[in-house]
Amino acid sequence: MDDRFYMEECLRLAKEAASRGEVPVGAIVVRNGQIIGRGQNRREADKNALAHAEIEAIEAACRFLGGWRLWECDLYVTLEPCPMCAGAIINSRIRRLVFGAHDPKAGACGSVVNLFDLPFNHKPETVAGLMAEECSKELTDFFADLRSKNKEEA
Predict the structure, then answer these.
(1) How many whole angstroms separate alpha carbon 10 and alpha carbon 27?
(2) Predicted TM-score (pTM) of this structure
(3) Residue tagged active-site, from 54, 56, 80, 138
(4) Which residue numbers in the chain have pLDDT < 50?
(5) Could you tell me the sign of the dihedral formed by the alpha carbons of 91, 83, 134, 23, in that order?
(6) How is the beta sheet containing 26-31 ordered, strand by strand?
(7) Which run of H or of E encompasses 135?
(8) Dist. CA 104–CA 83, nearest whole Å
């Protein structure tokens, strides 16, 4: 399976999140071709600032493997990780990060800052912009719908 296959699974998760009123971000952790962790944004449902898709996917992968070191794993996510999630990627030793849309407001893997350029003890390989148009469209459509709903309610 190739990177597009995994990103399509992330997009499916992002659409599920959007259907629940969450910002549409989906993430998966893959090890040896097997998806071992899935995540979607759940900040609104969980009332928790830490409930990002990447964190949920990393937690699931750690539970699956029975440990915190994900050095043989790749993380796929529809949106460039924020500083918190980039830190989790470093700390969990994710081997490779593949993300779709850049995040010019909060992206910590090249857009606002690149935490992976700092002298931390781990630097994942990074592939940026995979299926960026599809990932960006999901976010753009979600926020356009949200603005429209808010305008109708006002």
Answers:
(1) 5
(2) 0.96
(3) 54
(4) none
(5) positive
(6) 34-40, 26-31, 73-79, 96-101, 125-128
(7) helix 132-153
(8) 13
